[in-house]
Give the backbone structure.
Amino acid sequence: MLYPQRLGQFTREHADTVAALLCGLLLLFGWFALHLGWLGLAFLLLPAAYVIGGYESAREGLTTLFKEKELDVDLLMIVAAIGAASLGLWRREYHLIIDGAILILIFAISGALEGYAMQRTERSIRGLMSLTPDTARVLLQGREEEIPISQLKVGDEIVVKPGELIPTDGIILSGYSTLNQAAITGESLPVEKTVGEEVFAGTLNGYGALQIKVHKPAQSSLIVRVIRLVEQAQTEAPPSQEFIDRFEKGYAKVIVVAGILLATLPPFLWGWDWETTIYRALTFLVVASPCALMAAIMPTLLSGIANGARQGILFKNGAQLEKIGKVRAIAFDKTGTLTTGQVQVFQVVSASEYTSDDVLKSAASIESSSEHPIGKAIVQAAGDLDWVAAIEVQAIPGQGIVGIAQEQQVIIGNAIFVQQYVTNLSEELREIVQSWEQEGKTVVWVAKNPTPNPSPQARRGAEVMGVIAIADQVRVEAAATISRLKKLGVKQIVMLTGDNQETASSVAKTVGIDRVYAQLLPEDKLNVIRRLQQQYQTVAMVGDGINDAPALAQASVGIAMGVSGSDVALETADIVLMADRLEKIAVAMHLGRRSQLIVKQNIVVALGFIMLLLVGNFLGNINLPIGVIGHEGSTVLVTLSGLRLLK
């Protein structure tokens, strides 16, 4: 019973694809039957191919006709196909029925491809909804009780334990912890939060338990606003899609009106007999059908998509391959995009009587007992050194950490914390630290006291060993990528980040970006993209986090990092860089520009053939078989032209 269920589910999820496959198979078998002279079987198989392959196009065409009072290419193709089949039956030239079925098959395949592209919005929203838990742990009369998020009210007090997701926005009533907010704000380091500070739904709690007061309805939380923004941005049709829709309707109207006129006026104007008139009208419908025009675009874009996939660039649909070649402005997220998103030890400077290794070994001995990301970065940097874990380690939240290593007290923390243990801080080190902090780096001081358990009087007898700078590493290819994009003619390149201005400006200066927008929330990034679109029309956004999802959806082209990117960013984006290689953005733009050039060439060829065949048909210099050969030949020609992008 399992296999029929799976088959039924597959059929429902891929109905358009199944219809196109069945249409193709029936067409193939029908052609064989005609070739072998089995007319009865052919007349059974080919109408089935027409019905199965053309049902969706006929339904959409008739719906547009009756509800919107408009003609579109879907209906035109069905009329052309039925016209070809009718003419084939009338003149007993049954190969024309095959030509009509081919027209239907082409549109069935196009419909299946379009259906896959339209599934992204639903998957994106499902991915966003999974970021918050379904329930929250609420304090009711001193007892904890789990209730659905939807039942939370303003004023409720909730408990969040270490390692749990924050269920809704709120204010901390008690407790202290570090929160990983990268998914929401894009900040590269976890943020320390204590009483009175706001926390956001969807952020990950660190090592401390928190008691939080709900200060706004759950439906108004930041993550829910992100969901709404993504949904809204993805449902807005881009101008290019609107232009294509208008073109299809206009083209269909012209052809239908011209077909009707050609089927009725020639006997009165030029004295044609009715058989010749109908013959020419049906030939007109066949040669004027826009198969070559449609084939001028899709094979080219599919070839470009295949080319990009071989190079680690995933285009989610052909329209985005076309758009990336028109991009005039690009916005980059910082954390996880221009940087690796992994904090590392940037530099170690020691006091005169110590070495950098001494500083790292002492720091790693203490930090090996810490779960803080800075501590992990220090331990990783000291991995090849010989050190032993400290004992009696005590962390002072938001300030530093103290422990005993090799019978000496080691103190690590910020300048204010370390000053409680040392007499004075070196001016030389102060100057170095000041320059680091101006560049946006996080700095920890390392000191030691020869006495493992000093008395209160001897507490300030420690001496500074050195300082360690912690930073998110800039991707090695970032600067070259920015330079390459400028050479390609991109007019504006900006950085959007939730980090502070100093850190953002430092990274921007390193990679060559002149314009920086810092301390942004998701809706702020969205607004910046909208302003850029007003000025530059076609704008790309490159990001990796949940906080980038609304901007990725709003941008003309959303580009996500495939390895470091969140599931939501990957689903929302139009293009995914599978190996997180920024230089592939320039490759994608080159592919996009080549695709535009080939599409324009193909359109000229397709329209040229159509005009030539129409003139020939009007002058009576071609018959229907020649018209079909010209029509199908032009389609094959532009299809082969589009395959050039595979190279």
User: Anything to note?
Assistant: The chain has a mean pLDDT of 80. The chain is about 55% helix and 20% strand. The radius of gyration is 33 Å.
